[in-house]
């Protein structure tokens, strides 16, 4: 059996036996969410990358028997049906578009399975941060945020502050100055000199504040994070390079 997850940035495929034991896995960057905010469509470049990926998989797998789902970027794109019809005709693959709630449920099941393998027990909230959306689940509560790494960056790419003063000399001379600042946005203002990065940091702060508010209202103490962003952060904290990435050193680690 072959399972395929076509996300807003990456396509992941897993070959399993009849007991759902993992036999082989694949990962390809598609970039489906790239330029989606501007055009409203999956780009021709992303479609071509998707076709190239399926051509590679088709050499090893029978794609007509694959269980394939697609998520946020394809929920938003106006040309999704056209793309899926073409892929079915060319590769025999039948992609199913799943809604945000189904995506969150499937993601939670995957994270819970991983936690059991790691022998980590407890009551957690689950957060799946993708390229075009962020799904948050806790108990029977669920919420989807229109906040993804790619969509967020592109949405804010062209609008940033035009002027900025570097405070490096001030911080170097008075290092405790920053430590004593209680306002987090003010800290961002002083610590980041690049106007583009400063603007992105401010916008990210506002977006994350909404998610934090939701978590506080649910009484959540621990959040399990899924996707490439938190795993990359965990790897960076451990000085693990992309080339030497080891999932066993990342899964189950605490970020903060």
Please characterize this protein's 3D structure.
The strands form 2 sheets. The protein has a 5-stranded mixed sheet. A 4-stranded mixed sheet has the order 8-7-6-9, sandwiched between helices. It has 256 residues and is an alpha/beta fold. It contains 12 helices and 9 strands. A hairpin with a 4-residue loop joins β6 and β7. The chain is globular, with a radius of gyration of 21 Å. It is 46% helix and 18% strand. About 3% of the residues have low confidence. The protein folds into 2 domains: 97 residues, ATPase, nucleotide binding domain (Nucleotidyltransferase, domain 5, 2-Layer Sandwich); 148 residues, 2-Layer Sandwich (Nucleotidyltransferase, domain 5), CATH 3.30.420. This is Ppx/GppA family phosphatase. It comes from Campylobacter jejuni. InterPro entries: ATPase_NBD (IPR043129), GppA/Ppx_hydrolase (IPR050273), Ppx_GppA_N (IPR003695).
């Amino acid at each position: 059996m072959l399972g395929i997850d076509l996300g807003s940035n990456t396509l992941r495929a897993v070959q399993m036996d009849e007991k759902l034991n993992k036999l082989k896995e694949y990962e390809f960057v598609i970039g489906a969410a790239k330029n989606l905010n501007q055009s409203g469509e999956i780009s021709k470049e992303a479609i071509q990358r998707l076709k190239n990926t399926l051509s590679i998989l088709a050499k090893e797998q029978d794609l007509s028997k694959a269980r394939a789902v697609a998520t946020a970027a394809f929920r938003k794109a106006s040309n999704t049906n056209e793309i899926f019809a073409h892929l079915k005709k060319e590769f025999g693959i039948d992609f199913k578009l799943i809604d945000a709630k189904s995506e969150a449920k499937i993601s939670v099941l995957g994270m819970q399975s991983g936690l059991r393998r790691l022998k980590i027990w407890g009551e957690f909230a689950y957060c799946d941060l993708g390229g075009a959306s962020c799904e948050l689940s806790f108990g029977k509560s669920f919420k989807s945020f229109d906040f993804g790494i790619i969509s967020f960056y592109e949405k804010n790419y062209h609008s940033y502050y035009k002027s900025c003063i570097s405070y490096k000399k001030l911080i170097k001379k008075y290092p405790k100055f920053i430590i004593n600042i209680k306002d987090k946005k003010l800290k961002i203002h002083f610590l980041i000199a690049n106007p583009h990065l400063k603007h992105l940091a401010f916008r990210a702060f506002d977006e994350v504040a909404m998610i934090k508010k939701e978590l506080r209202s649910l009484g959540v103490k621990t959040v399990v994070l899924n996707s490439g962003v938190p795993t990359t952060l965990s790897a960076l904290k451990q000085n693990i390079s992309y080339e030497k990435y080891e999932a066993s050193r990342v899964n189950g680690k605490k970020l903060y």
